[in-house]
Design brief:
Radius of gyration: 13 Å
Shape: globular
Distance between the termini: 39 Å
Largest sheet: 4 strands, antiparallel
Helix content: 40-55%
Order of helices and strands: HHEEEE
Number of strands: 4
Number of helices: 2
Length: 95
């Protein structure tokens, strides 16, 4: 198994943990703090800049049973992130 393949497996595993953890804790204020930190980690792992996350809010209107949509606001950028189990997050820069 190549290093690239192992890295891809690790990224997917981290995404699964992040997605399920965020979905579980999405309602409380402390969960919002945790969510923004975990989403920032995910964004950075995929090459996006988010050194200082400001907020993370779940987009309930666009989220579904198989995918959670979040808006992550960082100090200099904002992203819409689609989290799906077993896949890399789909990240769209908003500004």
């Amino acid at each position: 198994m190549s290093v690239t393949h192992m890295r891809a497996i690790c990224v997917v595993a981290v995404q699964l943990v992040i997605a399920s953890f965020i979905a579980t804790l999405a309602q409380s204020a402390s969960a919002q703090e945790t969510a923004k930190g975990l989403l920032a980690i995910q964004a950075r792992s995929q090459g996006y800049v988010c050194d200082s996350p400001v907020s993370a809010k779940r987009d309930k209107k666009h989220s579904g049973p198989d995918a959670a949509i979040w808006v992550l606001r960082c100090e200099n950028n904002s992203y819409r992130m689609r989290l799906v189990p077993d896949m890399a997050a789909r990240v769209q820069r908003l500004n």
